[in-house]
Amino acid sequence: MTNHSFHFIPPHPMMKGVGLFPTAVRYPHNPNSLCPADMRKSSVARNSSNLNSNKVELSSEADIVVIGSGIGGLCCASLLARYEQDVLVLESHDLPGGAAHSFHINNYKFDSGPSLFSGLQSRGPQANPLSQVLDALGESLPCATYDSWMVYVPEGDFLSRIGPTEFCKDLATYAGPNAVQEWKKLLDAVLPLSTAAMALPPLSIRGDLGVLSTAAARYAPSLLKSFVQMGPQGALGATKLLRPFSEILDGLQLKDPFIRNWIDLLSFLLAGVKSNAILSAEMVYMFAEWYKPGCNLEYPIHGSAAIVDALVRGLEKFGGRISLQSHVENIVVENDRAIGVKLRGGQFIRARKAVVSNASMWDTLKLLPKEVVPKSYSDRISTTPQCESFMHLHLGFDAEGIPNDLGIHHIVVNDWKRGVDADQNVVLISVPSVLSPNLAPPGKHVLHAYLPGTEPFELWKGLDRRSAEYRNLKVERSEVMWRAVERALGPGFKREKCEVKLVGSPLTHERFLRRKRGTYGPAVEAGTNNTFPGHSTPIPQLYCCGDSTFPGIGVPAVAASGAIVANSLVSVSQHSQLLDAIGI
After folding, report:
1. Which of 514, 412, 420, 385 is nearest to 150 (CA)?
2. How many whole angstroms separate alpha carbon 564 and alpha carbon 560?
3. pLDDT in tens, 265-275
4. Same structural domain for residues 273 and 377?
5. Alpha-carbon gap, residue 555 to 104, rounded angstroms
6. Burial level of 179, CB count in 10 A (0-12/13-18/19+)?
7. How confident is the model at residue 375 (pLDDT cuts 50, 70, 90)?
8. Helix, coil or strand: residue 2
9. Could you give the 3-state DSSP secondary structure of residue 428?
10. Where in the numbering of this chain does the Amine oxidase domain appear (predicted)?
11. pLDDT, tens only, 158-177
């Protein structure tokens, strides 16, 4: 499951996610950044005096109130609606989707976050968590498929293909025969472990003892079968799935510099950390999805916003509601229980059963009265390390002079020695109009380049966004992205010919995503005592989902977290009936 940096979004269950996909970006100084004609209507309420024509009175109560409409919040809310709960989603901004929303400027449609996906159309017990949620909602997601991306590394430029054999050809050319042998050795070791990594369907998990029925007992035969197929050595290796992936590399005595650098890059794109900090389970699943026969990558035909649209359709189909421009000011706690929320305008909305926060752990804490939060809980949150933030470059330009065979994704690594997590070193580029021409005017392209969770917030802290100092820093810190774009698109690309040029900074993230320090999420390392929090909190009836909770960062991961919370708020019987209904 991917979604951190380029955020690769491989399909699986409990993986952190697509490391390669940045958080959403909004450009407040451009009034055309969102076109009212493209904003979702139907039962999407807008609670703002600035949009009186669209204003809809909010209900004063619901069974469950969900704060935030990111992928995690929408997965949670839509499943709860599917479970026949009265659910209301409150979103501060004027479009749903959080880090996955899209915005329009001059007929260009830009992704603000995730762009590299796989497993979106998978079905069955081993499918991507997001796919399982969409399946439960009866929603489909048309996608274009492809099998490669361009890589620009110190050793050279090459087209990296997924699949069992193609990458070995690239290794032979750019790294030599020793790298080929080590890569084959790695695949032979990790691919058998994938049966254990994918043993439990993500939609079967819940956060209480009911999991013994919905997951453990229900899938015990398949679990046992997978371990038998793996044999004693494989079963022993499966015990390493919750350890850092570097331990598997070290155990295999893999020392080739290119192989170790490449694995660090994949780890970082997947989860925002290198191989010494990523769970082996995440990497094993990614290998199984990308290096098996017949595999492919996917991109939604109508952009990443199509994922959001599908979840909103599912929510509304089953009677759920979403209200935009409804900013939650506080979570209301009475008699030590979360009983609802207070909006910025003063309106109180009661939650009869639960409040679910899709905000980050740090921002959720700010919504709570200090006196009701146990010190141990607030201390844990305040001391949890954070990933750095992003720089973004969004461009709209004429396709004339651009190669006809241009690929959708490009990865630039300037210097292996600095490390893939160093600032200004790795640039991710997505040109989705290559596969989805409808995202740009005829004969044009849209492009999104970004620094994947490596931009230090401290460089930007305290700057006035209207100042010359801020503008100059944006020019300086975006130059590495411009150079990467020029390298990827070739001499036919000219900066001055871009019809749309937008630069987003960590302050953009902090302001519009309401995320402390504009962070991508928690920097949790495998093999340490610091783990992703669960979904319940010390405040009864208050739950959390999203990238601050298990299983972590990325589209598949946040989808899984939302599903786990939804499942936990209904009976085991209802949960089991849903699993039966979708055939898992």
Report:
1. 412
2. 6
3. 988 887 778 89
4. no
5. 22
6. buried
7. very high
8. strand
9. strand
10. 71-567
11. 998 888 777 888 889 888 99
Q: What is the pLDDT of residue 162?
A: 85
- Burial of 557 per CB tally in 10 Å (0-12, 13-18, 19+): buried
Report helix, strand or coil for 128: coil
Phi and psi for 193 in degrees, rounded to 5?
-75, -15
Confidence of residue 35 (pLDDT cuts 50, 70, 90): very low
Residue 296 falls inside a structural domain: no
Residue 232 lies in a domain: yes
pLDDT interval class at 8 (50, 70, 90): very low
> Cβ(40)–Cβ(323) under 8 Å?
no
CB 185 within 8 A of CB 254: yes
Question: pTM, whole model, 2 decimals?
Answer: 0.87
- How many domains does the chain fold into? 3
Q: What b-and-e string marks burial along 204-236, b requiring 16 or more CB atoms within 10 Å of the CB? A: bbbbeebbeebbeebbeeebeebbeebeeebbe
Residue 501, burial from CB neighbour count under 10 angstroms (0-12, 13-18, 19+): middle
Any bridge partners for residue 18, and if so which? 3
DSSP 3-state of 46: strand
Longest Cα separation, the chain: 67
Alpha-carbon dihedral angle through residues 60, 66, 67, 69, given to the nearest 10 degrees: -120
Same domain as 263, residue 183: yes
Residue holding tokens 């956060």? 207
- 77: domain CATH number is 3.50.50.60
Going by C-beta distance under 8 Å and a sequence separation of 6 or more, which residues neighbour residue 555? Answer: 1, 2, 3, 7, 9, 17, 18, 21, 71, 100, 114, 117, 130, 307
Distance CA 503, CA 390 (A): 11
* pLDDT more than 70, % of the chain: 86
Round the CA-based radius of gyration of the chain to a whole number and report it: 23
For 252-301, write each residue's pLDDT tens digit. Answer: 999 999 999 999 998 888 777 889 888 888 888 788 878 877 788 999 99
Round to whole Å and give the CA distance between 100 and 123: 22
| Cα–Cα distance for residue pair 456/170, rounded to 1 Å | 33
| Predicted confidence band of residue 146 (pLDDT cuts 50, 70, 90) | very high
For strands 148-153 and 409-413, give the pairing: parallel
For residues 398 and 487, membership in a common domain is answered with yes
Cα 59 from Cα 543, distance rounded (Å): 21
Q: Which domain holds residue 447?
A: 389-517
Type of residue found at 483: R
Same-domain check for residues 241 and 317? no
What is the distance between the alpha carbons of residues 135 and 101, in angstroms, rounded to a whole number? 21
Same domain assignment for residues 380 and 393: no
DSSP 25: -
When pLDDT is cut at 50, 70 and 90, the band that residue 549 belongs to is confident
